[in-house]
Amino acid sequence: MYDQIHASKEPNVPANKLNDTTEEPQEVKEHLQDVAVGNIMERIKMAEKKEKQSNGADRARCKWKSETNEKLDEKKEAAMLEPGNQLIPAPLSHIPLKSLLDIETKLVYIDEEEISFEFAEAAVPAGHRSAHRGCATAATSTPSVPRVDKQLRVALQDASARYRQKNYAVAAAQFATALELCSKGAATGKPFDSSPEDISSIASFIETKLVTCYLKLGKPDLALNHSHRSIFLNPAYFRNHLRQAAVFRCLERYSEAARSAMIADYMYWLTGGTEQHISKLIKLYWQAMIEEAITREESFSVMYTPFVTKVKVDKTDKMKETFAKKHPDYVEHIYTDPHGLHILPQTTEWSSPPPQQYLLTLGFRNKHIGKILEKLSSRKLPIFSDRKAPFSPITKEEARRHWETVGKKIVPVMDFIRSTKLTDNFCACSYVIEKLHYASILGRLQRVTEQSQVINQAMAELASIPYLQDISQQDAELLQSLMADAMDTLEGRRSDKERVWNKIEKIGIIEDFLYQVEDSYLKNKRLRAARREKTKMKRLQNTQQH
């Protein structure tokens, strides 16, 4: 079991508000975002085309599903749940801060003077994982490097020189100027012949430089949106995800840092990374973030149990009993995430799929929060709201109440669950929908800066989805709709049409109502049947007595 170790801790520090003066002009963001959206849509179309051309055998080899182990016997399944099994991770061992800083020095703050280093073939479509990796490996060995505009190159060289002189404030200002030049068409030497991938990759390179500048200045709050946009513009480059992880670490958002590190490690393998020491460093960072998230958390505790086949109800009950013995302070509500597919850095090796999978059992101090989380986990699409009237506009008081529950108590748990869950087998966009629901609550409360950050984070996740898993036509359409609505919300564009995630919320509320009516009907039916049977037995007894 991967047990929680509680230690003395300081309260989490919320992200500071972003300073609007550090943001690039609105037209810069709009132009680059339009380019990036075009890139992502093109990747999805290419992925769909490739999927139609491939056969069923290829699909079976590319997907990591627990069904591949269905033929294992019951004895092996039981053995996986026994204490002392070698697949069960050892208790948490503290990873020193110095080790994390060393990893960041080697992988995050590396001074990449040439943009070619950023080109891990960002334009490779998602499609099948094996085909994707093969294309990415070939592209990495002979990258297609765009010719950077002369004026932009000079600006980048000047900014890089300031960075190497450790004059980070001036460097940040010059990189911001370079980003503005890029948005005005000065990205490549031949703007009319440039591909959208070239422009977005160059812009992503500049965004990452702004991330490192602000981190060096000790201002991770200013680096956050730049880290999201660097991923949105070039999701295939692993360092972009690792830089985002570093920003989250500095903001003490450890669960989100863990997820970013997990994706970074996967992207490194997917795009042809072969140096084992780099992957080991990323996994160590991922492990450290999980450790920190668990250690600092007081409202819930966790336990990971390895499994090879579909676990039956009696095995789930056994896991709950084991959890209760190990974590007696967290037994108000205990449940096991029913969807599995959790992975841990200690036992994950992307080159030999499928990786070892774990069931995650969570225990809570607060019974109400635990029940909400279990209910969310059982849904195909996440719906946070407890609204009873789906067609009435949400009031500010309702939004404030939702934020108190969702923002402070639910979202942190959901973020932790996602820190060891690369993909979702229900809906590829589940994590994004969670974030966009939360952004809507923040918007209703007029917490504009926080709303903007959450939407940027959701868009970075959307851009990454085609690389993380094969997506169906339905998922692709949902992804496009979410991307379009998120972009409109971020840019303040109003529409007569309702946002996609709000429509999903309404459908979820209506479904809940129908399920409640059905449950109530079936319950009353059973009660009526029991009463009739009881009455019948009484009549029979009376008849026999007379």
TrEMBL record:
User: What domain of life?
Assistant: Eukaryota
InterPro entries (UniProt xref): SPATA16, TPR-like_helical_dom_sf
Q: Which GO terms describe its cellular component?
A: acrosomal vesicle; Golgi apparatus
Protein keywords = Cytoplasmic vesicle, Developmental protein, Differentiation, Golgi apparatus, Spermatogenesis
Which residues lie within the region annotated Disordered?
A: 1-30
Predominant subcellular localization, coarse grouping: cytoplasm
* Pfam hit, one: NYD-SP12_N
Localisation per UniProt entry:
Cytoplasmic vesicle, Secretory vesicle, Acrosome; Golgi apparatus
GO biological process: any one? cell differentiation
* UniProt record similarity statement: Belongs to the SPATA16 family.
Which protein, by its recorded name, is this?
Spermatogenesis-associated protein 16
UniProt source species: Anser cygnoides
